[in-house]
Structures are given as structure tokens and as C-alpha cells.
Design goal:
alpha/beta, Rossmann fold, 6-stranded parallel beta sheet, 6 strands
């Protein structure tokens, strides 16, 4: 038995899924264009700077965990990690990925290994040195990352994922040692801290589009386009609903109650 209000929701879900699939197919023929995102465009420059200085690049996905509601932010960070690792491999720059949750280690290791293989530098990837498990405790992890910053002096620091109170510790520490920084998170409380200190910033949904933006993968870019169109449809329905309600009609409201 269907509960009232579920038919409309089910219909919208099916429509959005079909829309995303159609956008994926269209993207295979012609990639959709993205607006310019300065932080992602600056990645080659950041890694090139590290190559010139002979210093490593540090990468963190924050306190991302696979079994929580911030898993999507973790996945967004890992998608950019693959791109960064490939760039670093091509330019001979060592990238250090610091791990908060141990379950992420094998995923990150495989992503980085594949990136080095695509760059033709598979033999240069050293998982023991480049994928480092720090701690599963928030401030123990933060302290360990700060220690790496002080010892390794990375030329660039890239932070994409869910961040909490440690965000300011990271940003301030890497700023003090002279690292150029790119930060991105969908946690609104931490965005102001990154905005004040970091050189480049990805705000909220920009991190979810980041993987598609840098990889130019047809499936990813198509899914992003489909989701954007779906949001546009939702906004139009909201506007139509407001207009109809002001006009004294409950047609759309009654439709949504089906």
C-alpha cells in the first residue's frame, strides 16, 4: 500500500534518474562545459611550484569516514587525489597523503598507484612513504599532520573533504611554513576559516563537481549536468507553487500529496 505523498516523490525520483542517464549519454558525444573554478585550475601551478622547489605536496581528505553522512565529501576528495597524484608523478613530485580512517588506506593506495601507472611512473610510487596513517582521533591526527608540515615543509597543501575544528590548525600551520593552499569543504562552519587563510577555496558543492572538472570523464560530467538540471526543475516547481498559492490555487500542493 502506497503512503500518501509517496507517488509524486517516486515519480520525481524516476524522472531525475532518467534525466541523469540521458545527460550521461549526451556527455559521451560532447562534454558539457563547466564554469571556471580558480582553485582547480591552479593545481598544475601548485604542483609545478613544488617541482621547482624540490619539495613534496601534502594532501588530506580531512576527517572523512566511509560509514557516515560525510562519506560523499570523502569520495569527492579522493577523486581529486587521483588527479593530483598523476600530475605529481608526471613532474617527479612526491605527494604525501595523510589518512584519518584506516579503511580509506587501501582505496587511496589503489587510486594513487593507478595514477602513477597512467603517468608511466608505476615504479616510483612508494605506498609506505606516500600513504601515511596518522590516527583515528581528531586532534592526534591534527598534531601528526602539523608535524609533517614542520618536518617535510611541503610547497603545497591540498585539503578537500569534511573538516572540523582542526581546519584552522591545518590552514595556519601550512600558511606559516609558506605552503600555497587549496581547501574545499561542504561544512559551512569551516569555510570562513579556510577563506581567511588559504590561497584558493572550493565552496560546498564545488567539491562534488571537482572530480568531473579535473578528469573530464563523460560519465561524471554527465551526472553533474543531470543533477544541476534536476535542481533547476525543483526551483521552478517551487516558484510555480508559490505563484499558484498566491493566486489561491492548491493544484500543485494537491499533486504533491498523491
Amino acid at each position: 500500500m502506497l503512503v500518501a505523498g509517496r507517488i509524486f516523490a517516486l515519480g520525481m525520483l524516476i524522472a531525475i534518474c532518467v534525466l541523469i542517464l540521458v545527460c550521461m549519454e549526451l556527455a559521451k558525444r560532447k562534454l558539457p562545459t563547466f564554469r571556471k573554478i580558480a582553485g582547480l585550475d591552479a593545481l598544475p601551478e601548485m604542483i609545478g611550484r613544488a617541482a621547482e622547489m624540490g619539495k613534496p605536496v601534502h594532501y588530506t581528505t580531512g576527517l572523512g569516514e566511509l560509514n557516515t553522512n560525510v562519506a560523499s565529501q570523502l569520495v569527492a576528495g579522493l577523486s581529486v587525489l587521483s588527479y593530483v597524484s598523476e600530475l605529481c608523478a608526471k613532474l617527479g613530485v612526491r605527494v604525501i597523503y595523510t589518512v584519518y580512517q584506516s579503511q580509506v588506506m587501501p582505496i587511496a593506495t589503489e587510486l594513487m598507484k593507478e595514477a602513477y601507472t597512467r603517468a608511466g611512473k608505476a615504479d616510483e610510487f612508494n605506498a609506505d612513504d606516500q600513504v601515511r596513517y596518522m590516527s583515528g582521533e581528531q586532534f592526534a591526527y591534527a598534531s601528526a599532520v602539523q608535524g609533517i608540515a614542520e618536518r617535510e615543509r611541503p610547497a603545497a597543501n591540498i585539503m578537500i573533504g569534511p573538516f572540523y575544528a582542526e581546519s584552522m590548525l591545518f590552514a595556519e600551520t601550512f600558511y606559516r611554513i609558506g605552503s600555497i593552499q587549496l581547501a574545499g569543504t561542504a561544512r559551512g562552519y569551516q569555510i570562513p576559516f579556510f577563506a581567511v587563510v588559504c590561497d584558493y577555496l572550493l565552496i560546498a558543492e564545488e567539491i562534488y563537481a571537482a572530480g568531473a572538472y579535473v578528469s573530464k570523464d563523460a560519465v561524471l560530467t554527465g551526472s553533474i549536468r543531470g543533477q544541476d538540471v534536476g535542481k533547476l526543475i525543483a526551483l521552478i516547481l517551487m516558484l510555480v507553487g508559490v505563484i499558484l498559492t498566491l493566486a489561491g490555487s492548491n493544484a500543485l500542493i494537491n499533486l504533491m500529496k498523491l
